[in-house]
Amino acid sequence: MSAPKTPSAFPPIGVKVSTDIEQRASGIRARARWTDPATKKRITRALVVPDEEAAEAFFDQLQRSAKVGVDLTITLTDYIEQIGDRWKRGLDPTSTATGYWAGLRLRVIPAMGHVPVAGISTGMIDRTIDDWELKLSPSLIKSSVAALVRVLDEAVRDELIEKNPARNRSRRSYGKSSVFDFSSPSDTSPRAHAIKDLETLTNLAAACGQAGQPYSDYVMLCALLSARSSEVAGLWAEDVDWDANIVTIRKQTFPSSSGLVTKQTKGREERPVPILRPLVPVLERLTAGKDPTDRVLIGVRGGVITTANVSRATKWDELVTEMGLPQLSRHGLRHTGATWMADAGIPLHVLQKILGHKSIETTKGYLHPDLGHIAKAGELANRFLDAQTEAPQRPSGKGRGRSKPGPEERGL
């Protein structure tokens, strides 16, 4: 037997509401009454307010709540519960939706859940993000704000608020230029999280290999394919094309709340990546004797390697700190390969395709902050101009065949 329905805190749409006010010693008692059409019960909402103007505002709020079908005083926590999964529409339930819900549950609701939806301001959100930035990574902040944006988009549609105050709050880089930034790389720059050279990378791979050869291979694959952990886990032998010297990244495999999931890459597009020379022996060993549909990399016990596996097995945080790389994350391996290819002079549009970035502005973050590439471009342009200057000048058609004029002709 289902539980009895709780009476609504605001009048249902189309229901007649009777109101009255009563003077009391503590102020004015404003009372609104209506009959719930479902339960046929008489519902009363009363509030003590300081004056008649406040009473009229209370009555108006109830009427407007009835008009939009949502209590205008509802808190963010109650509103999230009320709308259910409506805010998740269009999200991938196996990955994005799970991360967004974690952001709401673990960060947004504890910070702002007690606040009425109509009272959430841009300033409040900014101050919350200020606090998060002291203890959370940019990716966690971004996913948390993205979830809040979706919830408040529903509030806009429900006419609880006129506009969404969370819009663009995860991108608070005011004054950020959309052109090349030649300043020194900051802590948020992908270059700041890359390994400096191949020797350091191979030393790291060897150290991780102490926990098992697959962990060494994982390091080399992530770095030299500029790939995410999930993309390395989703590589099949058929993705390695030795004739073209290319690995095509088509899938990703990662753990979700429902178990391991294999699906398209983050950008939902296949991504060709060149096989760099240091990776050749690793790939040859990993693909030797395998069927096309066999995974390239498997764990020590035959399962799929995830970033969590690597962290636990290699004691990653302790290891990278001992090696003088305390800020290096597993995702920093992808940044490493991308940074090296950018420094090698690979054209920006080609690098964008290799990395699978939708926006070329993201790819620009891997460019070297000094002016070396610009100086080289200047050298090439100067050679072109020098070649023009050194070329023999062909006589023009005008006056062709005439001898050099004498002094008389020059008026001397």
Secondary structure: elements and pairs:
Layout: E1 18-24, E2 27-35, E3 42-49, H1 52-68, H2 76-83, H3 96-112, H4 122-132, H5 138-157, H6 198-208, H7 213-224, H8 229-233, E4 240-241, E5 246-249, E6 251-256, E7 259-264, E8 271-274, H9 280-287, H10 307-314, H11 316-322, H12 332-343, H13 348-355, H14 360-364, H15 372-390
Antiparallel strand pairs: 1-2, 2-3, 4-5, 5-8, 6-7
For the residues shown, what is the average pLDDT?
A: 81
Number of strands: 8
Question: Termini, distance in Å?
Answer: 121 Å
Biggest sheet record: 3 strands, antiparallel
Series of H and E elements: EEEHHHHHHHHEEEEEHHHHHHH
Strand order of the largest sheet: 1-2-3
Strand proportion: 5-15%
Based on Cα principal axes, name the global outline: elongated
C-alpha-based Rg, rounded: 32 Å
Pairing-aware structural class of the strands and helices? alpha+beta
Low-confidence segments: 1-7, 173-186, 398-403, 407-412
Total helical segments: 15
